[in-house]
Amino acid sequence: MTYSVAVSGASGYAGGEILRLLAGHPDIEIRTVTAHSNAGQPLIQHQPHLRSLAHLTLQDTTPEILAGHDIVFLALPHGQSGQYTDALEDVPLVIDAGADHRLTSRDSWDAFYGGDFHEPWAYGVPELLVNGGKQRDALRTATRIAAPGCNASTVSLSLTPGVAAGVIDPSDIVAVLAVGPSGAGKSLKTNLLASEILGSANPYAVGGTHRHIPEIQQALRVAGADDVRISFTPVLVPMARGILATSTAPIVDGVSDAEIRAAWENAYGDETFVHLLPEGQFPRTADVIGANTALIGLAIDRAAGRVTVVTAVDNLVKGTAGAAIQSMNLALGLPEDRALSLNGVAP
Ligand SMILES: NC(=O)c1ccc[n+]([C@@H]2O[C@H](COP(=O)([O-])OP(=O)(O)OC[C@H]3O[C@@H](n4cnc5c(N)ncnc54)[C@H](OP(=O)(O)O)[C@@H]3O)[C@@H](O)[C@H]2O)c1
């Protein structure tokens, strides 16, 4: 069977990456692409790397144009998806790359986003530990999927094994992330100009204001944490794509080094796309660019009494489009890794 697909936000970074991956998916026909200010223009004008989709024209993003497909991807600025999702009742599978359906707590939505709150959908990170199982079990029966925030899923994948195994204390987490500017989207912003970024590392959303904080707290609670407190600081660095997240948390008293490492080995030992590196090795973003892969390095810092987890992902693949398509594969009953690469593009 071939599934017909519409991708909204197709002129943007997330929409473009969804299209790049779907173009190599044998079970998918990309029928419709939509945008906003660029509607009416050829897709290739905005995504010149997507040569095989040169025949497509960006249409307006309306419920009528998105309806009538087997699968709809929403890759719109946060706050925009809700108006379409209500009108897409008859579409069998809808996947939102935005934040509108990620949070279960209305209070968190109000505090960090504001505007209308929409119901939470199945969270699109299959490898996450949840209530003694994995999130992929929920995705197998899902018809509505919320793909993750890229920074949020990187930190959640880093720490949920230690939380679920009870070897780290989630009430004192510190996460500092080096992030590429594509995470902020394609629209013009002064702080994202090359002249502001090249040759500089620029912190932003410092001091507990970043919107991905409640998403991380939610994932760690689902993994078994009661009290989650996190100091979260992203730093823009001059690389187009990629996240390198360094997350630390206190080691629970009496836990051995072997028990700590076993928590991550047990969580990810059988996973295709999430790899714990051998002891003493730490990942680089260069190794995951273009790949649906999360590489994790783990250090046990006894002097500091903390575990240090360094994780590298491509924000546009494992952090968004790859997670969305991996989740789609699960929901359709297809091989989970279809159209997704384990290998990065390097150097
Ligand atoms: N970038 C990432 O690494 C990343 C990671 C995880 C999740 N996400 C999420 O993915 C979503 C899209 O992000 P992005 O980085 O792709 O942003 P982007 O590059 O700025 O693209 C935004 C897209 O949405 C369209 N759009 C803008 N306003 C719209 C409206 N009012 N109605 C309908 N369409 C509208 C734009 O169309 P025009 O160009 O025609 O105006 C464009 O196609 C966001 O919710 C973001 O949080 C992104």
UniProtKB/TrEMBL annotation:
Primary location: cytoplasm
Keyword Cytoplasm set for record: yes
Pathway(s) per entry: Amino-acid biosynthesis; L-arginine biosynthesis; N(2)-acetyl-L-ornithine from L-glutamate: step 3/4
Residues of the active site: C150
Enzyme class: oxidoreductase
CDD domains on file: AGPR_1_actinobacAGPR_like (cd24148), AGPR_1_C (cd23934)
Subcellular location: Cytoplasm
EC number: 1.2.1.38
Transmembrane portions of the chain: none
InterPro entries: AGPR, AGPR_dimerisation_dom, AGPR_type-1, NAD(P)-bd_dom_sf, Semialdehyde_DH_NAD-bd
Keyword Oxidoreductase in record: yes
Domain (Semialdehyde dehydrogenase NAD-binding): residue spans on this chain: 4-138
Keywords annotated in UniProt: Amino-acid biosynthesis, Arginine biosynthesis, Cytoplasm, NADP, Oxidoreductase
A Pfam family reported for this protein in Swiss-Prot or TrEMBL: Semialdhyde_dhC_1
Coiled-coil region list: none
HAMAP family: ArgC_type1
Family per record: Belongs to the NAGSA dehydrogenase family. Type 1 subfamily.
Purpose: Catalyzes the NADPH-dependent reduction of N-acetyl-5-glutamyl phosphate to yield N-acetyl-L-glutamate 5-semialdehyde.
Protein name: N-acetyl-gamma-glutamyl-phosphate reductase
Natural source organism: Microbacterium murale
Gene (UniProt): argC
